[in-house]
Specification:
two-stranded antiparallel ribbon; mainly beta; single chain; 3-stranded antiparallel sheet; elongated
Amino acid sequence: MADRKTFKVRVGERAAVSHQGDNTPLLTTLEGHYSECRSGYCGACKTRLLEGRVRYLSTPMALVRGEEILPCCCVPETDLVLAPQ
């Protein structure tokens, strides 16, 4: 393996993107090019909201119930208290 810090990453026929740094997760590079992450699609970041109010930037596709929120696609409207993960 070459000793370098920048790598080209291509997903299918899409243009290659540059991945820099050996401590940066690959998902950081692929966001907006490949992944639905940060768009309310997967629900992996689902968190329980104990106090406060949020507003969604886009309608989440993942199911959220009651006090659950998706931090990936919402912004606070008030001070917040979140349950520990």
